[in-house]
């Protein structure tokens, strides 16, 4: 007899042992779901969403899942995580409670609610582990179908490793033999991200196995309201491959049929792993015994007939029957397993709760002792003792309880000697606890962008002025030669070398896998980049124009931007996103939604170079770091002339550092990107009326002016104007806050700080549309002049 995980012939006793162990895992998982719901309803946990009803197919999937493989799933895959040895009972409950110690909750250190799973791709220092020697799960996110774009990239990485020579595969791949496994609920297949990914995977022909757990409902809404024909595999039949066309292998299987599930997943694994063909596994007739989540009961929307069917076709009940009928186990033996599972889960829950509460109880006792000591010396003794007693009486305290009490007492003793002691305790406590909730928005490794140093471009004495696009093109050439693991892909990026010829000739030189055209599908372009970056490649995902980024902003915001944060630094995706924008004409191609972007994607650096040499320097810098970034090239700058550097691929633009491009004494003008050219022109014209303007190029919106150089300029000029192409209140408001509030520039101002932004509407078409929609040279001149007029109306009489 052969087992599901090996081709070797084994005895019936070994087979029996393996199958019974599967049942034990499934039973433990079910008990975790049942007890987990009770923990939420009793208030120990905030919310629960569990994997009950999906246990048996996840066992089968786990059997086919090999070292090096990756999962990109949804929040019901707890049985799978237990089956691959990536989660135990205590860790399950630690996640449910939100334990902030990653040693107890390795999934997210309490940052995500339970049901969101991950393995560690990085060690505690942010260095790659050997991903080929472990089973991997990319970190889950809650947005429905949000896991799909990333899945595409995880699968594509195997194709790159198998077919592109010269890449060091150590730690990342065994000749591209890894499969990316996706999971999703049937209702979430209604999302556009699902269909976009399914189409893209079929085009790319990547080793992806996509499982749809189908229990006929999406929360309370039946499949008849979700899916045409109420059957996702039925409507995807056109994707089925045949002798003449590439496509998918589509498999269907009952979710309660253990042997059929094992056979199906072995077949899916073999097809995807060997042939690099995507596979869709539609797992039907599943149940959800406790309903969608702890926020409601499924008895409200399932009738008696459906509930009776679910009881009969519960996958665990069916597996139990199969074990008995095939003489693998007796009813009594399985009953004993069931009972032991209840005991093990209950004990594991108790241990997890004790581990979760112990540190806080110690902090509680520490504060109570301090408050009682303060009370003994205070005029407010009675009130402070009451607060101390109230804190001490909290049976299961949380850290909010502790800090609220301490801060309230601090107000009572503001004029007493003990104030300094308590204030220091609060500051130390906050400094200790806050990182448990706030660390790792960005990399904390040695490869953080903040540790990179500028390397200036060098030039020959005879350096010629060339179209700026050639600086980008030749720098990309140097990059692709220097870093075999680097690749770029996007709409029109390959054959024609991108719409502005910044990649001219690169596909011919480096091949279609490294410089690739893709379909019009921005979300999965981002997903390709995220997944490949998570597997050690250095992708550059190109979004053709800045406003097309809106199609991908959800993936950037919910997945890429949060990855290091939501795994407490144990996963990373150093993806570079390339796009271009500003100053084009028309409603749809000239938006500059920077305020929306910078506020949606905290966790991704946002870089806004004023020319192509600066942009090229950013790419060179980023490839030596381990953080994701968005680079916005100036759309109207590709044909402007720049000198060709001699150190292509080596010069580096610093990130988070501003540059003063003109010195002045009367006012500081702050801007970035294409608008700087207008600012420079206006500054030259202002000189003719005796106004000396200092111009600062921000270069990097996130991070922003880490050396606080702008305030130094404002201290000299005492006036500030921020010029931006975004809508009023957009990026200019962010910039103003950074300078006036965070850099304390208000102390140096003799005039009100002001902003000059575009009109609130989208830019209208044509040259006049641009002039009347966005800041012009005349707008900048007159805005500065009006500021100077207010300061010295005699010297600068009013223009109007």
Automatic annotation (TrEMBL):
InterPro entries in alphabetical order: DH_E1 (IPR001017), THDP-binding (IPR029061), Transketo_C/PFOR_II (IPR009014), Transketolase-like_Pyr-bd (IPR005475), Transketolase_C (IPR033248)
EC number: 1.2.4.4
Phosphoprotein found in the keyword field: no
UniProt entry keywords in alphabetical sequence: Oxidoreductase, Pyruvate, Thiamine pyrophosphate
Cofactor(s) required, per the database record: thiamine diphosphate
The keyword Mitochondrion is annotated on this UniProt entry: no
Gene3D superfamilies in UniProt: 3.40.50.920, 3.40.50.970
Domain Transketolase-like pyrimidine-binding: 466-640
Any one GO BP annotation for this protein: response to nutrient
Molecular function, one GO term: branched-chain 2-oxo acid dehydrogenase activity
Function, as annotated: E1 component of the 2-oxoglutarate dehydrogenase (OGDH) complex which catalyzes the decarboxylation of 2-oxoglutarate, the first step in the conversion of 2-oxoglutarate to succinyl-CoA and CO(2).
Name of the molecule in the record: 3-methyl-2-oxobutanoate dehydrogenase (2-methylpropanoyl-transferring)
Species of origin: Flavobacterium aquaticum
């Amino acid at each position: 007899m052969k087992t599901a995980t090996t081709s070797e012939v084994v005895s019936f006793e070994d087979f029996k042992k393996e199958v019974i162990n599967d049942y034990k895992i499934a039973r433990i998982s079910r008990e975790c779901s049942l007890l987990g719901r009770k923990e939420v309803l009793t208030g120990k946990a905030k919310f629960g969403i569990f994997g009950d009803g999906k246990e048996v197919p996840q066992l089968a999937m786990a059997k086919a899942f090999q070292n090096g493989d990756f999962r990109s799933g949804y929040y019901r895959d707890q049985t799978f995580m237990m089956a691959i040895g990536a989660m135990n009972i205590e860790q399950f409950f630690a996640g449910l409670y939100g334990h902030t110690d990653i040693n107890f909750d390795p999934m997210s250190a309490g940052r995500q609610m339970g049901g969101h799973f991950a393995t560690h791709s990085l060690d505690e220092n942010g260095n790659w582990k050997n991903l080929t020697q472990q089973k991997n799960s990319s970190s889950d996110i809650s947005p429905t179908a949000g896991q799909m774009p990333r899945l595409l990239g995880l699968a594509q990485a195997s194709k790159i490793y198998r077919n592109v020579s010269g890449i060091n595969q150590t730690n990342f791949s065994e000749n591209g033999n890894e499969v990316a496994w996706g999971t999703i609920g049937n209702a979430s297949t209604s999302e556009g991200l699902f269909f976009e990914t399914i189409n893209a995977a079929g085009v790319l022909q990547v080793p992806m196995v996509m499982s749809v757990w189908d229990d006929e409902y999406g929360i309370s809404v039946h499949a008849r309201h979700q899916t045409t024909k109420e059957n996702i595999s039925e409507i995807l039949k056109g994707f089925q491959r045949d002798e003449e066309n590439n496509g998918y292998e589509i498999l269907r299987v009952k979710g309660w049929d253990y042997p059929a599930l094992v056979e199906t997943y072995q077949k899916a694994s073999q097809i995807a792993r060997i042939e690099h063909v995507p596979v869709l596994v539609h797992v039907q007739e599943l149940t959800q015994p406790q309903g969608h989540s702890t926020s409601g009961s499924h008895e409200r929307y399932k009738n008696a007939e459906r509930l009776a069917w679910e009881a009969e076709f519960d996958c665990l009940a069916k597996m139990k029957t199969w074990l008995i009928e095939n003489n693998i186990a007796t009813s009594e033996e399985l009953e004993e397993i069931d009972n032991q599972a209840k005991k093990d889960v209950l004990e594991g829950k108790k241990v997890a709760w004790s581990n979760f509460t112990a540190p806080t109880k110690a902090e509680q006792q520490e504060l109570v002792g301090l408050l009682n000591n303060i009370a003994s010396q205070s005029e407010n003794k009675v009130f402070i003792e009451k607060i101390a007693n109230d804190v001490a009486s909290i049976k299961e305290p949380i850290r909010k309880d502790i800090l609220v009490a301490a801060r309230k007492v601090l107000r009572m003793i503001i004029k007493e000697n003990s104030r300094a002691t308590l204030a220091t305790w609060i500051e130390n406590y906050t400094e200790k606890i806050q990182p448990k909730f706030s660390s790792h928005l960005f990399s904390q490794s040695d490869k953080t962008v903040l540790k990179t140093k500028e390397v200036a471009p060098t030039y020959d004495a005879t350096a010629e002025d060339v179209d700026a696009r050639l600086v980008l093109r030749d720098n990309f050439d140097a990059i692709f030669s220097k870093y075999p693991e680097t690749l770029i892909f996007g709409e029109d990026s390959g054959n024609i070398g991108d719409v502005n010829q910044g990649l001219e000739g690169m596909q011919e030189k480096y091949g279609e896998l490294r410089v690739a055209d893709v379909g019009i599908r921005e979300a999965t372009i981002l997903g390709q980049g995220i997944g490949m970056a998570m597997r050690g490649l250095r992708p550059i995902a190109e979004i053709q124009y800045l406003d097309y980024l809106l199609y991908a902003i959800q993936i950037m915001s919910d997945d890429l931007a949060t990855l290091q944060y939501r795994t407490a630094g144990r996963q990373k995706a150093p993806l570079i996103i390339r796009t271009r924008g500003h100053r084009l004409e028309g409603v749809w191609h000239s938006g500059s939604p920077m305020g929306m972007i910078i506020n949606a994607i905290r966790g991704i650096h946002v870089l806004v170079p004023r020319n192509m040499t600066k942009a090229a320097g950013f790419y060179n810098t980023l490839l030596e770091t381990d953080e994701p970034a968005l680079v916005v090239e100036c759309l109207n700058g590709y044909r402007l002339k720049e000198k060709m550097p001699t150190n292509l691929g080596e010069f580096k633009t610093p990130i988070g550092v501003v540059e003063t491009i003109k010195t002045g004494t009367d006012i500081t003008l702050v801007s970035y990107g294409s608008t700087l050219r207008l600012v420079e022109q206006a500054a030259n014209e202002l000189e003719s009326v005796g106004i000396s303007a200092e111009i600062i190029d921000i270069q990097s919106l996130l991070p922003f002016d880490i050396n606080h150089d702008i305030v130094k300029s404002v201290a000299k000029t005492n006036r500030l104007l921020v010029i931006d192409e975004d809508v009023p209140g957009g990026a200019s408001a962010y910039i103003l806050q950074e300078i006036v509030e965070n850099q304390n520039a208000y102390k140096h101002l003799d005039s009100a700080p002001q902003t000059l932004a575009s009109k609130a509407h989208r830019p209208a078409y044509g040259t006049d549309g641009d002039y009347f929609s966005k800041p012009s040279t005349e707008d900048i001149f007159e805005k500065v002049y009006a500021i100077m007029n207010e300061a010295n109306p005699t010297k600068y009489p009013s223009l109007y």
